[in-house]
Design brief:
The complex is a heterodimer. By secondary structure, chain A is mainly beta. Helices cover 9% and strands 47% of the residues of chain A. Chain A has helices at 3-6, 22-33, 245-250, and strands at residues 37-47, 53-63, 70-77, 85-89, 97-102, 107-110, 138-148, 151-160, 170-176, 182-189, 192-205, 208-218, 223-234. Classes of the chains: A mainly beta, B mainly beta.
Chain lengths: 252, 401
């Protein structure tokens, strides 16, 4: 799971810097975040009811760009999930394929994911929130400008097209005007905000402006998940052969 | 000694070294006594340590070690380190895995004691031929490693897997004096030393991952890791002498998984032949539907069996004993620390049933508690039903590191 994956609406195509067209703004945002590969150590805190905190951490490797990438996530903590690994193979034309390796049974299992509103490992991110998405599967509307954390942002509404199945009716995206980093997403079901993703700790990592802390709030459950990217690197040399079901097994 | 400690510390501190493990304390509580076992409570303790070290790019050593004991003599009370897992009781100390893995590009070679798992379905895997298990408790099993060489070559879309096992690792069967071995009342039965086969096992599997579905074809030639029994009546003294043996077995199998809009269909089938006329010839198959819905996961299906030749020897086969049955599993994630799971097998003729609800909760970064109930009902002539007096509660506490 990387920043580009974690962002619900990250899209394709280039656009003039000063364009006010909503689709071109989000496309430019994605273009600027593009990298051939990415590696990071994710540290995740789920803050549930009563402020109970549980922590998870993993190492994530991604090869390829939006729509055609492969990701391997290997959990490193807590101790009883250490060794659990997830392989996600994204396709431009269909839903991703996913396999999970569980050390306790020494076998990989193909994961059934018909319902993408399912929470990712009991966090406040749903599997859909982590998917890469095609720009052509949404309609965009520029709603205006609004500041988030003191920075001027474009406020854009993205509605899934009829061909696109989504748990959300629409998502409002806030993209900073100075560096095109998306800093907030508000996802709606009908007219109610159900999830809010807030991105902070923005830094220039190897020429790519990146938010290194994501806070997802599930407003219905009244819980939130904070994900921090540590040791983030882009364009790390990686091999396709390390992103297969076979590799998932041999690295255990 | 000091040098060894320094070296170990240096290795452990290296980035290429990883380790994990757990200590687990399990209590099983049986409300009913069995005809051959009057105990109502069993305590089990297991320490498992796993480590791996990358010696060089593409070359890794992996090891796993078990130390265990219990209150019911399921585990040996003598000190020796087991490699082959052929002991009647569980060994107190065992090498669970010790293998070297070499990978280069599309090729992966693993040699040594390891785990080889085939198949795609859950609850029952007919094609999983290199996966012997510990059946000392028939409904709470653990896999045993095998000593083998495994070569895997391929890409994400097509993979060939070839396995050679020079010496059979048998499944561990229930102990005669305990409740999971249901014996005829009034007949003294003595178990003789088992007749282990001498020959090797060989298998190959081709797996294809396509856009619409994923499927495999597999072949196995060797011996069954589940035993048949050769039983003889002795008159002086009057008793039955039983000997385990492991018949020659050949399997032709296949499995598939197809994600659909509403569910994922998984299927697996194997046809088993033998040159040993004492053994049955049969086919086993499983079809299951799998769906994730919110925090629920559902697996439901049917396991079938077709008998094509009837052998003459009695057998111990939990796999076949769980066929001609509806199988189902459901899980619900309550939150990041808590979950519940349900598993059931119900024979189609209603003569046997197994149901297991289980609750698990994590505490902090290291502790996890599990509490569950195993309910078994049925008739004495049914594989599941024969364990009707073995319904029990399970409580376990695990510290992972």
């Amino acid at each position: 799971m990387n920043r580009s994956l974690a962002i619900a609406v990250s899209l394709v195509a280039a656009a003039p810097l000063f364009a006010q067209d909503a689709r071109q703004i989000v496309a430019e945002s994605q273009k600027r975040a593009r990298a051939n590969s990415q590696r990071y150590e994710g540290v995740l805190e789920v803050v549930g009811a009563g402020n109970k905190i549980s922590k998870k951490s993993w190492v994530s490797d991604r090869i390829g760009a939006f729509g055609n990438s492969k990701v391997i996530i290997r959990f490193t903590a807590p101790a009883d999930v250490k060794g659990v690994a997830l392989l996600v193979v994204n396709h431009p034309d269909r839903a991703s394929d996913q396999w999970m390796w569980t050390p306790a049974i020494n076998r990989e299992r193909r994961i059934a994911l018909q319902d993408r509103s399912t929470r990712f490992f009991a966090t406040d991110f749903s599997f859909e929130d982590l998917e890469e998405r095609d720009v052509d599967q949404f309609d965009y509307k520029l709603l205006g400008e609004e500041a988030v954390d003191g920075a001027a942002c474009w406020k854009i509404e993205a509605r899934p097209r009829e061909s696109k199945s989504s748990q959300y009716t629409l998502t409002r995206i806030f993209i900073r005007k100075d560096n095109y980093v998306p800093v907030q997403y508000e996802s709606y079901i009908k007219d109610q905000v159900v999830r809010r993703l807030h991105e902070t700790d923005i830094a220039n990592v190897q020429g790519i402006w990146t938010a290194r802390t994501l806070e997802m709030t599930d407003l219905r459950r009244n819980s939130r998940t904070i994900l921090r990217f540590e040791k983030l690197q882009y364009n790390v040399p990686m091999k396709e052969d390390d992103f297969t079901v076979q590799a998932l097994r041999r690295e255990q | 000694m000091k040098l060894a400690l320094v070296l170990f510390a240096a290795v452990a501190a290296a980035q290429d070294f990883s380790q994990r493990g757990f200590f687990e304390n399990t209590g099983l509580f049986f409300p009913q006594a069995a005809t051959n076992d009057s105990s109502h409570a069993v305590g089990e303790w297991l320490l498992r340590y796993e480590a791996s070290y990358k010696l060089a790019p593409g070359l890794k050593i992996s090891g796993s070690f078990d130390a265990r004991t219990d209150s019911h003599h399921e585990t040996e009370r003598e000190f020796h380190l087991s490699w082959w897992d052929r002991e009647r009781q569980r060994p107190a100390f065992a090498v669970r895995r010790l293998s070297a893995t070499y990978s280069r590009g599309r090729l992966t070679v693993e040699a040594g004691k390891q785990f080889v798992r085939w198949g795609k379905t859950d609850v029952l895997n007919p094609t999983d031929r290199f996966a012997p298990r510990d059946f000392v408790n028939v409904v709470d099993t653990d896999f045993l490693g095998i000593t083998a060489a495994r070569v895997t070559y391929g890409t994400q879309s097509d993979t060939i897997d070839v396995v050679f096992e020079p010496r059979l690792t048998p499944s561990r069967v229930p102990l005669l004096g305990q409740r999971w071995a249901v014996l005829p009342a009034g007949l003294p039965i003595v178990e003789e030393a088992p007749a282990f086969p001498g020959g090797p096992e060989f298998g190959a599997r081709w797996n294809h991952i396509g856009a619409a579905m994923e499927y495999s074809f597999s072949f196995y030639n060797g011996h069954d890791h589940l035993p048949l029994y050769d039983a003889r009546l002795a008159l002086a003294p009057f008793r039955i002498e039983a000997q385990r043996f492991y018949p020659q077995l050949r399997m032709y199998g296949g499995d598939a998984a197809m994600p659909l809009r509403w569910a994922t269909v998984k299927a697996e089938a194997g046809y088993f032949t033998s040159t040993d006329r004492r053994s049955d010839e049969y086919g086993l198959w499983v079809v299951q539907l799998e769906r994730q819905s919110g925090e629920w996961s559902f697996i439901g299906g049917y396991a079938g069996q077709v008998l094509t030749r009837h052998g003459e020897s009695p057998e111990f086969s939990p796999a076949r004993g769980s066929t001609r049955a509806v199988v189902a599993r459901a899980g619900y994630t309550i939150d990041t620390n808590r979950s519940v799971a349900f598993e059931t097998v119900v024979r189609q003729n209603g003569r046997g049933m197994y149901f297991k609800p289980e609750y698990t909760q994590a505490f902090g970064q290291h502790w996890r508690a599990t509490a569950g109930v195993v309910l078994i009902r049925g008739e004495a002539g049914d594989f599941l039903g024969q364990y009707q007096r073995n319904s029990h509660a399970i409580v376990s506490l695990r510290y992972s590191f």
